[in-house]
Design goal:
- With 308 residues, the chain is of the alpha/beta class.
- It has 2 domains: 122 residues, Nucleotidyltransferase, domain 5 (2-Layer Sandwich), CATH 3.30.420; 164 residues, ATPase, nucleotide binding domain (Nucleotidyltransferase, domain 5), CATH 3.30.420.
- The strands form 3 sheets. It has a 5-stranded mixed sheet with strand order 3-2-1-4-7, with helices on both faces. A 5-stranded mixed sheet has the order 10-9-8-11-12, sandwiched between helices.
- Strand 1 and strand 2 form a beta hairpin.
- Helix 5 runs antiparallel to helix 7.
- The protein is globular, with a radius of gyration of 20 Å.
- It binds zinc ion.
- The site of zinc ion has 6 residues, from loops.
Length: 308
C-alpha cells in the first residue's frame, strides 16, 4: 500500500503524520519549528525516517502564511522569520523526489473538516479558527470560496468597531482585534492591571480556566469577547446563510463553554428568519484538521480521487 506523509507547519511546532490512501491517520507527532532555512532539510530527514516504515508516494503540506498552492510557494509569513518567498514544494521535491502539495493552514484545516470532520455532510458552511489572529474560510457547495485572487473570507479584517483598535492590516476596529485569542489575552492583561490583579503566564486556556472558576476579571473580559464574536458571526449568517459555523483553535477545545455561549448570544442577535438552533459547532478534528486537509490535497494531486 502507498502512504502519504503530511506536515502542518506553524510558528512554534511542525506537526506531522502518515495517512493511508483512505485518509486514515496512522501515526502522528510534532517537532519544534526550526529556523526557516532549515525547514526543507528537517522535513526531508523526517520523510526519510518515515520511509523506513512506510512506502510513501506523496507529501502534503499545510503551512502558516500566505501560500501559492500552484507554485508550492510561501508568499508571505509573519510567524517564521525568513520564510516568506520560500519555494517549499520545489525544494522538498528536489530532496525527496516525491510530489509535494502546499496549501495555507486555515484552508487545509477547512478542507480537512469538509472531507473527514464536522461538516462532512454539509454543503454550505463557514469555518474559523481563533488564535493569534482569526483565520476563516467560506464553504459553498462543499468548496472553499477563493474570490478573484484567493483572498475571500477574511472575517478577521472586517471592521466591527468604527475607529476602534489599530489592526496589523492598517485599519482600525477589525474583528481580529476584539475576538481572537490574542485579543482576549490582551484585554485580560489590561483589565487585570486596572483592577490590581496580579497577572503571570496568562494564555487563552488559562483565562478559560479562570472563567470556569468564576474569577470576576476573566468573566468580564470573556463576556465582551463572546459579544464581539457573536456580532461578527451574525454578520456572517446574514451575509451567507451557512448551515453550520465551525470554530477551531486551542481555546474552543475541551469542555469549555465558548461554543454554547456563542450559540446563546446568536439567538438574540440573528434575525428570526434564519435557522439559528446551535448553528455554531466545534471542530471535530481539532489540531489534526490541517494534516487531514494536506492529505486530501496530496491525494487529489496524485489523482487518487477522494471526493469531498
Ligand atoms: Zn485588520
Amino acid at each position: 500500500m502507498s502512504y502519504i506523509a503530511c506536515f502542518d507547519i506553524g510558528g512554534t511546532f511542525i506537526k506531522y503524520g502518515v495517512f493511508n490512501p483512505k485518509g486514515k491517520l496512522l501515526v502522528k507527532s510534532k517537532i519544534a519549528t526550526p529556523k526557516s532555512h532549515e525547514i526543507p532539510d528537517v522535513l526531508n530527514n523526517k520523510v526519510k525516517s518515515l520511509q523506513q516504515d512506510f512506502h510513501l508516494t506523496a507529501i502534503g503540506i499545510s503551512s502558516c502564511g500566505l501560500v501559492d498552492p500552484e507554485k508550492g510557494m510561501i508568499l508571505f509569513s509573519n510567524n517564521i522569520l525568513g520564510y516568506s518567498g520560500m519555494k517549499l514544494g520545489e525544494l522538498l521535491f528536489s530532496l525527496t523526489q516525491l510530489p509535494v502539495s502546499v496549501e495555507n493552514d486555515v484552508k487545509s484545516a477547512c478542507l480537512g473538516e469538509i472531507w473527514k470532520g464536522s461538516i462532512k455532510d454539509k454543503r454550505n458552511a463557514f469555518f474559523l479558527t481563533l488564535g493569534t489572529g482569526i483565520g476563516s474560510s467560506i464553504v459553498m457547495d462543499r468548496k472553499i470560496v477563493s474570490g478573484s485572487s484567493r483572498f475571500a473570507g477574511e472575517l478577521g479584517h472586517t471592521v466591527i468597531v468604527v475607529g476602534g483598535k489599530p489592526c496589523s492590516c492598517g485599519r482600525k476596529g477589525c474583528l481580529e482585534q476584539y475576538a481572537s485569542t490574542s485579543a482576549l489575552v490582551q484585554d485580560y492583561k489590561v483589565e487585570a492591571q486596572q483592577k490590581g490583579v496580579a497577572v503571570k503566564n496568562v494564555s487563552g486556556e488559562t483565562i478559560m480556566d479562570l472563567v470556569k472558576q468564576g474569577e470576576p476579571v476573566a468573566l468580564a473580559v470573556y463576556e465582551r469577547f463572546i459579544h464581539y464574536i457573536s456580532v461578527g458571526l451574525t454578520n456572517v449568517i446574514h451575509l451567507l446563510n451557512p448551515e453550520k459555523i465551525i470554530i477551531g483553535g486551542g481555546i474552543t477545545e475541551g469542555d469549555g463553554p465558548i461554543i454554547q455561549d456563542i450559540n446563546l448570544q446568536l439567538k438574540n442577535e440573528v434575525m428570526d428568519i434564519y435557522e439559528k438552533e446551535d448553528i455554531v459547532i466545534a471542530s471535530s478534528l481539532g489540531n489534526d484538521a490541517g494534516l487531514y486537509g494536506a492529505c486530501y490535497l496530496a491525494l487529489n494531486r496524485m489523482n487518487i480521487k477522494e471526493t469531498v
